[in-house]
């Protein structure tokens, strides 16, 4: 992989619809989702492990980009590079690093993810760039708390190419905490190919409500 890919993260996908954060935190979001998709998107389990359990095959991580995150616009940074990132990223200590990956099973992309870190935290926890974040953070069997903060429908041309499917796609973002301290903010986007194992993502009566 070219070094440029490891230093210049892609921009985030464009949100077309987002659930109110109060509904997400109170577990009232996602009424239009079918039960299995609601568990995947709003549950607090490891998506990497869930995908492996669903497919019965090991998941592989393909690193797309990993590098310093530009400063916010007010600090003379690049507004395009920081557009659309979750508000919770502002709670991380500067300077920041962003990592983006495909989650694949037998070569097929089933999810895309990006995460934001304080650079010192990233150096400590992301030493193996190809290892899933969940495994990196729990390698010492330490306790973590995952808080799901967002549910959205997003789209981007490169997501459609990567998933070989037409968007928009279901997305969520969440934070990991350890001993009450925020470690990282993670956004995940899931391929509609998961309907093979989970069934349709939305109830038939709700297909026209969110696009």
How would you explain this protein's 3D organization?
With 211 residues, the protein is of the alpha+beta class. It has one domain: Chorismate lyase (3-Layer(aba) Sandwich). The chain is built from eight helices and seven strands, in the order E-H-H-H-E-H-E-E-H-H-E-H-E-E-H. The protein is globular.
Overview in brief:
The chain has helices at residues 21-25, 35-42, 47-55, 79-82, 119-125, 133-137, 157-163, 195-198, and strands spanning 14-18, 60-68, 96-105, 108-118, 145-155, 169-178, 181-190. It has 211 residues and is of the alpha+beta class.
Keywords summarizing the entry:
211 residues, alpha+beta, Chorismate lyase, seven-stranded antiparallel beta sheet, 8 helices, disordered N terminus
């Amino acid at each position: 992989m070219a070094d440029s890919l490891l230093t210049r993260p892609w921009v985030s996908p464009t949100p077309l619809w987002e659930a109110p954060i109060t509904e997400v935190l109170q577990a009232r979001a996602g009424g239009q989702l079918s039960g299995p998709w609601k568990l995947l998107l709003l549950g607090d389990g490891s998506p990497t492990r869930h995908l492996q359990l669903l497919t019965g095959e090991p998941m592989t991580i393909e690193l797309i980009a990993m590098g310093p995150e530009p400063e916010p616009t007010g600090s003379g940074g690049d507004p395009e590079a920081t557009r659309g990132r979750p508000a919770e990223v502002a709670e991380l200590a500067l300077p920041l690093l962003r990592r983006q990956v495909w989650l694949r099973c037998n070569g097929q992309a089933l999810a895309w993810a990006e995460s934001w870190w304080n650079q010192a935290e990233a150096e400590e926890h992301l030493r193996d760039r190809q290892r899933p974040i969940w495994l990196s953070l729990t390698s010492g069997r330490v306790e973590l708390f995952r808080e799901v903060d967002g549910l959205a429908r997003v789209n981007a041309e490169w997501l459609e190419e990567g998933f070989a499917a037409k968007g928009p796609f279901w997305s969520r973002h969440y934070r990991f905490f350890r001993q009450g301290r925020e470690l990282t903010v993670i956004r995940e986007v899931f391929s509609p190919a998961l309907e093979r194992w989970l069934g349709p993502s939305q109830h038939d009566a709700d297909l026209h409500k969110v696009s």
